[in-house]
Write a structure and sequence with these properties.
233 residues, 11 helices, 3 strands, 70% helix, elongated
Length: 233
């Protein structure tokens, strides 16, 4: 597919994906490819490529003589970063943020405890660097810069756990943190207590203190849920 085709593909996907996850097309809705071609003024090839992507996310399924059918929400690949992004952009954002933050609450404290046992010296240094950069960008309404280091910090924790399943959740956590920032479900400056807790997690991992690393990380996720109660009730 050439650059023009990729641009058309992205445009159609950026319209259909959010519409499906927002419920504009209820489960069982049949999307006819010929109608999509006309609606978006694109070729059948572009529509087919878009449908393949949506199928890979389990948002739709294609059946001969039936067409492209929207699947029930419980069948969607809710861990797909793009699906997360689309759902967070919709009206159901508060519930989605709570669901994702609850997932973080279950996974990240355990990952931090494992990181305290398995992190390499290089990973310990990365954690410290990102934590200090979070401190440096936590004032003066520097949320975009803060977000970069926040995401990097949590990716290192998940990766340093030594558990490949946890590590694969790095993109999920990145989308949660990005969604909170982009949709203003954050204070203009991060909670100072949360910033300090990230530093303490880095210190605990470096000290090989699994109990403290887990406890501090749990406080971070509990604080994130408290923020949602205020900013996304």
């Amino acid at each position: 597919m050439d650059n023009q085709g990729r641009g058309l593909h992205a445009r159609v996907l950026a319209s259909l994906g959010p519409a499906i996850t927002a419920g504009d097309y209820p489960p069982g809705t049949v999307l006819r490819t010929d109608e999509l071609e006309k609606r978006f003024d694109v070729s059948r090839t572009v529509v087919r490529e878009v449908v393949r992507v949506l199928e890979s996310m389990h948002l739709v399924e294609s059946r001969r003589r039936v067409g492209v059918t929207v699947r029930p929400a419980e069948e969607w690949d809710v861990f797909d970063p793009q699906v997360i992004r689309w759902r967070l952009a919709g009206s159901d954002r508060p519930r989605q943020l709570r669901s994702l933050t609850a997932l973080r609450s279950a996974i990240e404290p355990a990952a931090a405890a494992l990181a305290a046992e398995h992190a390499t010296p290089e990973q310990c240094a990365e954690l410290t660097e990102h934590a200090l950069n979070m401190v440096a960008t936590s004032r003066g309404q520097q949320l975009p810069a803060y977000l970069i280091h926040d995401i990097a910090f949590h990716r290192v924790i998940l990766r340093a756990s030594g558990n490949e399943m946890f590590a694969r959740l790095g993109d999920v956590v990145a989308e949660v943190l990005t969604g909170r920032t982009e949709h203003q479900v954050m204070f203009s400056d991060p909670d100072p207590e949360a910033v300090t807790l990230h530093v303490r997690v880095a210190e605990a991992v470096r000290a090989r203190d699994a109990v403290r690393a887990e406890a501090c990380t749990r406080e971070i996720t509990v604080g994130a849920l408290r923020e949602l109660d205020i900013l996304a009730p």
